[in-house]
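Subject: for your reference before the review

Hello V.,

The reviewers asked for a structural picture of the protein, and I figured it would be easier to keep everything in one thread rather than splitting it across files. Below is the amino acid sequence we used in the manuscript, unchanged from the supplementary table.
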Amino acid sequence: HSTSRRQRQMCIRDRFWKVLLLSVAVVWGYSFTTMKDALDTIPVFELLYVRFLPAALVMFFIFHKRIIAHLNARNLIVGLGMGALMWAAYALQTVGLAHTTAGKNAFLTGTYCIVVPFASYFLSGEKLTRYNLGAALLCLAGIGLVALDSVEFNIGDVITLAGAVFFAIQMAVTAKYGRKMDINVITFWMFVGNGVLSLATSLLFETQAPLSVWTPSFISAMAFLSVGCTCAALLIQNVGLAHVSASTGSLLLSMESPSGVLFSVLLMGEALTSRLLAGFALIFLSIILSETHFNFLRRKSHPQL
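And here is what came back from the structure prediction:
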C-alpha cells in the first residue's frame, strides 16, 4: 500500500509540474505581441537587459539567503553558463523577430522540441524513444499549420532557427543540473549572466532609447515581461525541467507558439480557419502521444483460461 501511495503521489507531482510548464507556455504565447511592440520602441539587447537584470534583482530579494550560502565556483559556472546559452538563444530569437513575422518566429523557435531529446540524450543519457520523436514531429507539424503563412525563408528565419538550437541546449543543461543543484540559485546566476551580457552588448553596439519612450504604459509592459514572463516563468520552467523529462518539458513549453496564435484569435479578431483547427488538433495529438503512447488504442490481451 505504501508503494502504491508513493506512486500516486509521484504521478500527482508529475502532472502538477506538467500543468505549470503548460501554463508558462501560455504566458509566453500571450507575451509575443508585447515583445513585437517593444522592439518598435527600444533595440534588441536593451530589451533583453531590461528583462533580465530586474528579474535577477527580484530573485535575489526572494532567495538571497540561499544564493549567499551557495556562493561557490560550481554554481557560478553552471548558472552563468546557462545564462550565456540563454543570452545567445534570446538574442538570436529577438534579432530574428525584428526581421521576420511573429508567426514564423514562433514556429521556428518551437523547433527546439525536436532538438531537446537529442541534446538530453548526449548530455544526460536520457532515453531517446520513438514516442518522443513522433510527438515532437507531430507537434512541429501542428505549429507549422498554426503559425506559418508562407514557407519562404529569409535571414530572420535562419537567425531564429539558430536561436532554437541554443534554447534546446539550455533546456537540456537545465534538466541535467537542476536535479543535482539548487535550481533557484543557478536560475539567479542565469539571469545575471544573461542580463550582464545583454547590457554589455547593448552599450557597445546600440543607441539607447530616449527617456521619453518610458511612459507609464511602456513601463508596465516591461514589468510584465521582466517579472511575469522572465522571473516567474523561467523559474517555473527551470524547476519543472528538474522534475519531468526534458523531452516532455520541451514539448509542453513549445505550446507557446499555438497559444500565441490562439490569443490572436480570441483578443485581436484573427480568423479561426480550418488550417488553424487542423494545427491545434495535431498539437493536441502530440501531447496525447507523449503522455499515453496511444496505449488506449491497443487491444488488451486476456489470459487464456
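For the response letter, the relevant points are probably these. The chain is about 80% helix and 0% strand. The CA atoms of residues 135 and 290 lie 6 Å apart.

Happy to draft the paragraph if you're swamped.

O.
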